[in-house]
């Protein structure tokens, strides 16, 4: 059996891989002698192949996990694995799991195409707001706790929500803090102790420059942040967060044309300051234009993570494209 776990949501795919390994050991391999994990960049090809065809030791199945074989593995490894598939030399006792991040191949290998079609293969995409909400609730329930709606909405709307690895770490800290104070329910006050409001005024000024088609000012504001030593992922994350928030507020405005910023903030569970600023920016921003820019930002993130560019260059190009 071959399984491919891949996609941009590496945190969730890692969770699923960990669960698959734990379940296999619990059900079929308590001793752990039939479970092996390889990093395709470091392991020798013969080691991987030999472990796939090896007979299980005092068990029915053998689990072989190969990480980054499709994205970082050598051409020889790919060809050897594909030959095993084509010649049907994979023993029925072997369970082989391929774990990958987001797969972007200039030339798709037949092995990749075949793996994606396997019954238990799965792509892990970035969470939608609803999926993120359900994930947070599940993590909180695992800690035998609850979370109020405003606190949940604040977590979903925060820039950190675009990085599940960081969000998970902060959520664990928040849970530990509440439990240490004999609490069982996370409030918005608890969240604010660990996650500061974002973004700052620089992000709003940048958006104002985009709205007014002032590419010179928009690029200057970006470069000011780079020059100040701000981390590129942090600046980019703030922009993604802001446009996600603008989309949320604009959608709410469309459904409630006469709503005030105060009422919108209350009903959306967002900072009144952020929503008031958003109301000002949205006067000249059609919903479709917002969606297009948000899509462009996601494409930039994808390119950076796959080595096709860097945040500074790609954001400069985006500004010139919009303005």
Task: Report what the structure shows.
Strands 2-3-4-1-5 form a 5-stranded parallel beta sheet, with helices on both faces. A two-stranded parallel sheet has the order 6-7. 60% of the residues lie in helices and 9% in strands. It has 3 domains: 2-123, P-loop containing nucleotide triphosphate hydrolases (Rossmann fold, 3-Layer(aba) Sandwich); 129-194, Helicase, Ruva Protein, domain 3 (Orthogonal Bundle), CATH 1.10.8; 201-322, Zinc Finger, Delta Prime, domain 3 (Up-down Bundle), CATH 1.20.272. It starts with a strand and ends with a helix. By secondary structure, the chain is an alpha/beta fold. The protein has helices at residues 10-27, 45-53, 69-72, 75-86, 110-116, 129-142, 149-157, 164-180, 188-194, 201-211, 215-227, 232-255, 261-268, 272-281, 287-305, 311-322, and strands at 2-6, 35-39, 62-67, 94-99, 122-123, 146-147, 185-186.
Spatial gap, N to C terminus = 52 Å
Report the total helices.
16
User: CATH superfamily name of the largest domain?
Assistant: P-loop containing nucleotide triphosphate hydrolases
Strand content: 5-15%
Rg of Cα set: 24 Å
Order of helices and strands: EHEHEHHEHEHEHHEHHHHHHHH
Biggest sheet: strands, sense, closure? 5 strands, parallel
Helix content: 55-70%
The CATH class of the largest domain, by name, is Alpha Beta
Helical/strand content category: alpha/beta
Pick out the low-confidence regions. none
Count structural domains. Answer: 3
Largest sheet, spatial ordering of strands: 2-3-4-1-5
Task: Report the average pLDDT across residues.
Answer: 86
C-alpha geometry = globular
Number of strands: 7
**CATH domain fold name of the largest domain:** Rossmann fold
In CATH terms, what is the architecture of the largest domain?
Answer: 3-Layer(aba) Sandwich
